[in-house]
Amino acid sequence: MGKGFFISKAVGIAAIIVGAGALATIIALSVVYSQEKAKNNDNVLPTDGGTTSKPPVTTTAPSNEPWDKYRLPKSLVPDHYNVTLWPRLKQNLTTGLFIFTGQSTVEFVCAEETDLILIHSNKLNYTKRENNHLASLTSLGGVKAPSIKSSWLQQVTQYLVLQLDGKLMKDHRYHLHTDFTGELADDLGGFYRSEYMEDGVKKVVATTQMQPTDARKAFPCFDEPAMKAIFHITLIHDLGTVALSNGHDVQKTVFQPTEKMSTYLLAFIVSDFSFINNTIDGVLIRIFARTPAIAAGQGDYALNKTGPILKFFEKYYNSSYPLPKSDQIALPDFNAGAMENWGLITYRETALLYDETFSSNSNKQRIATIIAHELAHMWFGNLVTLRWWNDLWLNEGFASYVEYLGAHEAEPEWNVKDLIVLSDVHRVFAVDALASSHPLSSKEEDIQKPAQISELFDAISYSKGASVLRMLSDFLTEKVFTMGLRTYLAEFAFGNAGYTDLWSHLQMAVDATGTDIPETVSNIMNTWVLQMGFPVVTVNTSTGIISQKHFLLDPDSEVTTPSIYKCVDGLSYFPPLRTINLYVFIISGSDWVLANINVVGYYRVNYDQGNWERLLGVLSTNHVAIPVINRAQLVDDAFNLARAKIISTVLALRTTKYLNKEREYMPWESAVGNLDFFYLMFDRSEVYGPMQDYLRNQVTPLFTHYKSLTDNWKNVPVGHMDQYNQVNAISLACRTGLRECQNLTNQWFNQWMETKLNPIHPNLRSTVYCNAIAAGGAKEWEFAWSQFKNASIAIEADKLRYALACTKQPWLLNRYLEYTLDPNMIRKQDATSTIVYIANNVIGQSLAWDFVRARWSYIFTQYGGGSFSFSNLVNGVTERFSTEYELQQLKQFKEDNAEVGFGSGTLAVDQSIERTIANIKWIAENKQNVLDWFKAEEKP
Ligand SMILES: *[C@@H]1O[C@H](CO)[C@@H](O)[C@H](O)[C@H]1NC(C)=O
Ligand SMILES: *[C@@H]1O[C@H](CO)[C@@H](O)[C@H](O)[C@H]1NC(C)=O
Ligand SMILES: *[C@@H]1O[C@H](CO)[C@@H](O)[C@H](O)[C@H]1NC(C)=O
Ligand SMILES: *[C@@H]1O[C@H](CO)[C@@H](O)[C@H](O)[C@H]1NC(C)=O
Ligand SMILES: *[C@@H]1O[C@H](CO)[C@@H](O)[C@H](O)[C@H]1NC(C)=O
Ligand SMILES: [Zn+2]
């Protein structure tokens, strides 16, 4: 899936309840649970919701039956499926439901004799077949299939279970037939529906999101990535959307059989969307979206870029695109950013549709990189699939690395490859520096339940995966890296592999080319993959000694996660020091030394005080002597080393003094990101005023620079990075209260309200809207809300949705919070991020926290089915926490909701507690110093 949005799934109790009687089930279960606890028994939870037929044998002991295990037995191997699905895009007014019906036949081979068939199935109702069973079985090749003895649905583990009265025979083939009905719900998972308005008419789309474990919600299937098969899909759908008078005029679309593929990559969609198309070297490329969006040319950019990116990856992988067509579709409701279904990639509208009048350069970059990310998966992930979800990091980390290569191909002027440092390396450093982090690789047996799988779609898998693969590609050289990659793809095409298979192929390439590396690929990579965290490398220029240790944001925190990594030579925690030359690329000036050039290595760097002083000297006299990425890195390292108490906070603040001369985006972005932490910690304290004064002085020259560069804000800067930094200039100038900036944004916004013609350039809209709404009252808010509701492109709606959270009026914020749980106001896909926006606002912080606390069990049960990212939510609303009182509230929250659970946010709750403790300590130790420093800087 595309990064940036992580899905979360129904988990724990939420997964047990189905349909009606939900509330009663929750209550019943919690009663059972508390009784169990009271008896101080072993905490056995009922393993079945009890809403459908039960297994024939009832037992109270923890059952160890095959159907209680989350992993399929190895006895049956699917060959192909014939599936017909009929989604009804009209609500049944009697039941109030949208449904789909389906028939499926799967042909499987028996690999080990067995009298049991387990096949995944979730939330499907079956029509009874022969002898009242939920399925029927036939055999091929003349022998008679055993008859079905009993059949039932095992809800917790999501199986259709069939017990047979005789054995299936090894190497024989069988057909399993089913007829079923499912709900076409608006839950963003499995086969679901998306709704939108067009010309005043509500339209319904039936679409899918299978990854990771929701194909079983569309039809019964062996829903594991290694159970590859061929799928013959038939869809039944209405002809056109016009109301017809005499019943349904239906049409049947039969699709060519797929290649051999995993269930999680399937997709089927019924809509009345339009498309534009192209053909490149025989591959048909189509972009689908709502008809008005296509008519307005919003798919053109994606169509223009898809061909070149596809060609780039064919070359990169040395493998032609495996399918005859590549469809990409923008959906009004979609939970992740995008999903790499093989040949039918699904996107949020904001991730695919571009419109020059509405889209910023950042929107455009996102489209180019997400397309590249998803197309990269067509080979890496789809053609060759990881055997099990514990290796997800390799799939997502790889796509998150090469997405920059593909985007660079599409937009060579942008220097987009540099941005991996800000968007992935820095982003994940923040998480991976916590004691509650986790290694990239997990043990297969630790990843079993759907919620455990969902939890893997996190910053570690995406961004750390991308960071260490970039490092690997760099030290092997791209030539050797792609050589290994190509033979890996060739060997495992249409099959499955594990990450060690990639290491073997890279090793073969190393051996074939005689590349000199100090250890095997596998030994080197194990240190990064099998243990969590990353090192801080200290370069002591006075002694010449280079040393390293595990970098922990809170040096007092205790790492309890067991490491899978066994240190080979007992020398050190991270890469053996004798291989350090691989990672510590050093350049130096006359008297200073700088390590980790372009931040290729996945580690932070510290120096002796003397070298730090000399680096600060270079920054203030001739900052361009240091590469721009490293200027960003010096700031980021210094601030984080200070948070970990390795250097003083004052030293970190001093890295920002040269910024009044800096014009480049990356160092500013890095500084703004780190200063955000200061805002979070101090925007409710007396440090705030002096900090604002200092930063206003620092940013004013940048603001003035852009004012003249753009001829008093009339033009757009030429460079991509310059366009980004213009946004920083305005955001920070307005945030720090530069009057000229505030007047500018208010004046633009007022002009818009009065003339109804928007004069604001798309690049600047988010920040201008936000500042104007913050400065204004109900009138500005209501205007923006009406613009939000009427926006014709999601990219514009998203900017407004963000800015609406900037108001300083508590009543408006509270009302906005209420809207987030009303899908008519805020789409479910946007609920989490809207709440987090509100929490980012200093006025909204406590309102959002109270809201989430008060509604937790409601949110969890109502939105548990995929539309809420619980970890983003928990991290987002607790980010500012830095007092004892807030820590107590957080612990209380954890305790109060222990029974409801936190699902995919479980780890985030612990991370938030850890972060709050660290913040409390940090403030106690730093507040006075920081205040004194800002005050001293204010004085001329
Ligand atoms: C609506 O559902 C009811 C109950 O399942 C069913 O009897 C009826 O035929 C359905 N109506 C339509 C129009 O499909
Ligand atoms: C699926 O359909 C194909 C083509 O009609 C047919 O050859 C095959 O036998 C069918 N397989 C099953 C399992 O029904
Ligand atoms: C499936 O069956 C349950 C229990 O009878 C019912 O509540 C639910 O509405 C059914 N779902 C569909 C899609 O028919
Ligand atoms: C685009 O699609 C239309 C209609 O399906 C077709 O006639 C045309 O040849 C296609 N164009 C390209 C360039 O593939
Ligand atoms: C797409 O490419 C065409 C032809 O090169 C060009 O005229 C058009 O401006 C491009 N559209 C976008 C949105 O990039
Ligand atoms: Zn992905």
Automatic annotation (TrEMBL):
Listed Polar residues bias regions: 41-63
Domain ERAP1-like C-terminal: from-to ranges: 592-915
Residue stretches spanning the membrane: 12-33
Site (Transition state stabilizer): Y462
One term under GO cellular component: plasma membrane
UniProt-listed GO biological process terms: peptide catabolic process; proteolysis
An example Gene Ontology molecular-function term: zinc ion binding
Membrane topology: Single-pass type II membrane protein
Protein name, as recorded: Aminopeptidase
Cofactor notes: Binds 1 zinc ion per subunit.
Cofactor(s) this protein cannot do without: Zn(2+)
Organism ancestry: Eukaryota, Metazoa, Chordata, Craniata, Vertebrata
Protein family membership: Belongs to the peptidase M1 family.
InterPro entries referenced in this protein's UniProt entry, alphabetically: Aminopeptidase_N-like_N, Aminopeptidase_N-like_N_sf, ERAP1-like_C_dom, M1_APN-typ, Peptidase_M1, Peptidase_M1_aminopeptidases, Peptidase_M1_dom, Peptidase_M4/M1_CTD_sf
Region (Disordered): 41-65
Origin: domain of life: Eukaryota
SUPFAM superfamilies for the chain: Leukotriene A4 hydrolase N-terminal domain, Metalloproteases ('zincins'), catalytic domain
Annotated keywords: Aminopeptidase, Cell membrane, Disulfide bond, Glycoprotein, Hydrolase, Membrane, Metal-binding, Metalloprotease, Protease, Signal-anchor, Transmembrane, Transmembrane helix, Zinc
Listed Pfam families: ERAP1_C, Peptidase_M1, Peptidase_M1_N
Annotated localization: Cell membrane
EC number assigned by the record: 3.4.11.-
